[in-house]
Amino acid sequence: MDYSITKFLWTLLGLFIVLNWGMLMSSTMRRIGARVSGRFGIPWYQPWIDLTKLYSLKSQVSHGAMFFLGPVFRLMGGVGIFLFLPIIYGSDHWSNYSFSGDLILILYFQFFGMLGMALGAGEGGHPHSAIGISRGLSQFTTIEVPMTLAVISLAIQYQTLSISDIVAAQQGGFTTWTLWTNPLATAAGMLSLLGAFGHSPFNLVKAPNEIPIGPPTEYHGVFLGVLRTNGAILHVAEAALFMNLFFGGATNWVELIVKTFLIYFWSVFVGTVFPRFRIEQSVRWFLKVPTIIGIIAIIIFL
Amino acid sequence: MEKENKNIPLVKTKTFINPENEKRSVTAPDGSIIEIDPIKDYFCQDRPKEYKVRSGAVEKFLNWARAESLWVLGFGTGCGSIEIPPLVTPRFDMYRYGVQMRPTPRQSNVFIISGYLSVKTLKRAIRSYEQMPSPKYIIALGSCTINGGMYWDSYNTINRLDHYMPVDVYIAGCMPRPEALLAGFAKLKELIKAGKAEKANEYVRNLDWYKANQKKIIKDWNMPDYNW
């Protein structure tokens, strides 16, 4: 078969694995959260049932074209990060469509889904959506600051904007990981990751008890199914991005699963311990400690 | 001096339209004037449609998925709403059975009418119910929903819920304990898996009858007949 077609099929298979791993991971994390509060929580297969039900619902509601496109843009954000991320280092099949400048493109895709969702949810017209969007965008803007500073620090350290090259430079054992060679950038990145995953204390965007679910208030049925699909992909893809940047990447699927699980668990661990921030608190928090750490990480390598 | 004789009506005719829902013209930023009729613009006026029941294994599979993923609308009416929070605590933990709470009607399938419904709340309950996507189910909790219970002769509550909204499962008692609610969920699951929980379609087929009953008791009807 033609190389480009086989490449595409391998990437699709990778997307399928990542989707299912993301759903299993989310139900596992919810079970862990339930155990912390003394419950058993949902069965591990609950996300698949929910998704089946959501995709079987027929919608009669229309709020306009942008309302339909919102979840599609959001899905594109998640799939876009996956497509340009070398998910398994050194593998011809799973390096996806990574190229020499993919790091910049992935940073862009992180915001792309958010903006698409903002436009779509805005057309839904619900006041809670508007509040959720304004909170989400302002919080994500400040999340991006330490994250970008950490990425710039890595780019100066490794003199490259290619994720594959950054992973290649970290091969050769635990001590060559960015975690050891550039701990400050890792700290800034991991603190910004807390916000990117949207668990407590930074879950004000979707605060279910306060502004019912925030931006997706009007989304239901298939739309919500698309958003959930994206959530599963995005969580693994973002965790894989941080794994590639700071924790030496993965050379096989088992390593990927263990490392993404631990990275995601970091945000869940913090989330079960700390209560929710108000929006001005979280914005100030991101602009203080993580930003200062990120700036120092850059100054060191200048 | 002669008094001007103006025929000002003493009582203005009541229109039952909220001020924010009245027709008005608004000047847009570019200077053009736009006519806004919120009742027509903000609500959908179409009649509801029945959802299509597929046949054979596909419907059985989908019914199984619907039964195992019951999303409950976080809407409490009457005293029974205090019986719902214990369900998410370690003692009862309804998440084990695939029952989850959702904060918005758009994302819910199950509506628990948890006790008496005052006329004012009935209107909100109807609006919330109609915004839920089909297939949707109603669980009626407590004797107040069956025959009025201890509010039987109240001036302000309804007596029989199924005159106004289609009920799938009744849970009798005053008040039923959370265990009874879990049993109700189990019964609802049985009904859905057997393909017998089709009350949402029944509501659509008998919409005129339900609307006549609702309008008889809700005096300030200031919304379209079906608002999803």
How many strands, which pairing sense, and closed or not: the largest β-sheet of chain B? 3 strands, parallel
Percent of sequence in beta strands of chain A: under 5%
Helicity level of chain B, as a percent range?
25-40%
Count of helix runs of chain B:
6
Average residue pLDDT of chain B: 84
Name of the top-level CATH class of the domain at 59-217 in chain B: Alpha Beta
Distance between the termini of chain A: 48 Å
CATH architecture of the domain at 59-217 in chain B: 3-Layer(aba) Sandwich
Q: Based on helices, strands and strand pairing, what is the structural class of chain B?
A: alpha/beta
Helical amount of chain A: over 70%
Number of strands of chain A: 0
Summarize the structure.
Chain A is mainly alpha-helical and 302 residues long. Chain A has helices at 3-36, 46-56, 65-83, 102-124, 127-158, 163-169, 178-181, 183-197, 221-246, 253-273, 279-287, 289-301. Chain B has a domain at 59-217: Rossmann fold (3-Layer(aba) Sandwich).
Kindly describe this structure.
- The complex is a heterodimer of chains A (302) and B (228).
- Chain A is mostly helical.
- Chain A has one domain.
- Helix content of chain A is 71%, strand content 0%.
- Chain A is built from 12 helices and no strands.
- The longest helix of chain A has 34 residues.
- The radius of gyration of chain A is 19 Å and the shape is globular.
- The N and C termini of chain A lie far apart (48 Å).
- The mean pLDDT of chain A is 87.
- Chain B is of the alpha/beta class and 228 residues long.
- Chain B has a domain of 159 residues: Rossmann fold.
- Chain B contains 6 helices and 7 strands; from the N terminus they run ββααβββαββααα.
- In chain B, the strands form 3 sheets. Chain B has a 3-stranded parallel beta sheet with strand order 5-6-7, covered by helices on one side. Chain B has a two-stranded antiparallel ribbon with strand order 1-2. Chain B has a two-stranded parallel sheet with strand order 3-4.
- In chain B, strand 5, helix 3 and strand 6 form a beta-alpha-beta unit.
- The longest helix of chain B has 16 residues.
- Chain B is globular.
- About 3% of the residues of chain B have low confidence.
- At the A-B interface, helix 2 of A face helix 2 of B.
